[in-house]
Amino acid sequence: MSMPYYVSPEQVMKDRAEYAQKGIARGRSLIGLICTDGVLLAAENPSKSLYKIGEIHDRIAFAGVGKFNEFDQLRVAGIRHADIKGYTYSREDVDARSLANLYAQYLGQVFTHEMKPLEIEVLVAKLGFKDEPSQLFQISYDGTVVDRDNFVILGGDAQPLLERANETLVEHYSIADSLKKAVQILQGPDRTLNSGDLEVAVLQDRGSRRTFYRYDRDMLEELIKA
Amino acid sequence: MTLPIFSVDQDPGPDFKALLTKYKVNISGDIAKFDASDIRHGTTVLAVKTSEGVVVAGDRRATEGNRIAYRSMEKVFAVDSHSAIAIAGAAGPAVEMVKVFQIQVSHYEKVEGSMLSLDGKANQLSQMLSAHLPLAMQGLVVVPLYAGYDLANKTGRIFSYDVTGGRYEEFEFATNGSGGRDAKSLIKLNFKEDLSSDEAAVIALRALADAADEDSATGGVDAIRKIYPIVVKVTADGFYRYSDDEIESLINA
């Protein structure tokens, strides 16, 4: 009987992380920004129907990069979690932090126990209410959670975007201004993105209970050019 | 609570009620024998079609047998941006049904990324009613009116139901509850095609006043406590609830 090769746990984890990172870097980037009047989520996404950004609950949005089927499963699970919680307790008891932690647990679980890690990175965005500030939770393929109070960049080749964002985003801006800045950060100096290449949604108080609004292409065109 | 992730063959899809069942949340448990008159009941509700969409209205009284249990009950609710539901019957289960229905509609929209059609929503309500039938047989009858603006066909539509979940589309108006017959005769006399929302709201208020006149379980305008009937309109612009001030001026119109 032949002995199986010994592979150190360290090496296993390294390989898995590398595998996941590669998968995520292949996709295009997404940016989440906290604005003075809401939260803006913008992604480079040429598809008109396969969305990366989605509504979870009244004041919570989801965004994912990487493998579509993998993050979409988490999006749906998030909606279910939020709606069951809102039904059992009260709508105001649905919070983004606990959802971010559940995602983190799941991603961490898959990363350590399954053959293949999930090749995704997800964002849970919460629109602030009264004294509570808006928040962005970034959850990586290995279950690491980071919360940001200004902006977050997911997927693609994030490093140059991060540098551009650090230069451009020094405070909170209005949604309209943030959108223009987000497009600049996503496209970089050598390319131009137009409304057909983008998917944009906001969390914004407009007087109703639900705060998630998706910008359609025409509206986006107008806002980018304005 | 863990993340609700299901295997492919166990997945409830966009159905919120099926999801609740998976979570064993008890939505209609068995109950022992009881006297139905001990349960709170809500009474007159109505819907009228207009040139812009629909107007839905309801009185504010809830009764337990021959006693007034609650004076400011709300029987008309927004289901989503373009539809409204009005309830008559046992108040507890009716309000619960509305709550599940509201969540179901937005749950579907979020999971699937598109809104259910008005027919689809009306059908969902029908299924919830037929699931409720065992409780209705014990006296906890719930009969809603569902009305909304059909974005696909650009018109207002009204659906009435029976306890078994039977769904009937009404083309002019519908009323429900113990004062429904009184309200209906007034609407019948005043209804014409192409009413504006405000005109329909005036007729609705008069019909509710008539019902309150004749039926002890229907509440009238309570000017001292400032409790007015609830009147809403649903048009292409969406759901709108008339404010108390607007209702006061409509009553005096």
Give the topology, please.
The complex is a heterodimer of chains A (226) and B (253).
Chain A: H1 9-26, E1 30-35, E2 38-44, E3 53-57, E4 60-66, H2 68-88, H3 96-113, E5 120-126, E6 135-139, E7 145-148, E8 151-154, H4 158-168, H5 175-187, E9 198-203, E10 212-214, H6 217-225
Helix pairs in contact in A: 4-5
Chain B: H1 16-22, E1 41-42, E2 45-49, E3 53-58, E4 62-64, E5 67-70, E6 76-80, E7 83-90, H2 91-112, H3 118-137, E8 142-150, E9 155-161, E10 167-170, E11 173-176, H4 180-190, H5 197-214, E12 230-235, E13 238-241, H6 244-251
Antiparallel strand pairs in B: 1-4, 1-7, 2-3, 2-11, 3-12, 4-5, 6-7, 7-8, 8-9, 9-10, 12-13
Describe the structure.
The complex is a heterodimer of chains A (226) and B (253). Chain A is of the alpha+beta class and 226 residues long. Chain A is built from 6 helices and 10 strands. Chain A has a 5-stranded antiparallel sheet with strand order 8-1-2-9-10, with helices on one face. A 5-stranded antiparallel sheet of chain A has the order 3-4-5-6-7. In chain A, a hairpin with an 8-residue loop joins strand 9 (198-203) and strand 10 (212-214). The mean pLDDT of chain A is 93. Chain B has 253 residues and is an alpha+beta fold. Chain B has one domain: Glutamine Phosphoribosylpyrophosphate, subunit 1, domain 1, CATH 3.60.20.10. In chain B, 34% of the residues lie in helices and 26% in strands. In chain B, the strands form 2 sheets. In chain B, strands 1, 4, 5, 6, 7, 8, 9 and 10 form an 8-stranded antiparallel sheet that branches. A 5-stranded antiparallel sheet of chain B has the order 11-2-3-12-13, covered by helices on one side. In chain B, helix 4 (180-190) crosses helix 5 (197-214). The radius of gyration of chain B is 18 Å and the shape is globular. The N and C termini of chain B lie far apart (54 Å). The model of chain B has no long low-confidence stretch (mean pLDDT 91).
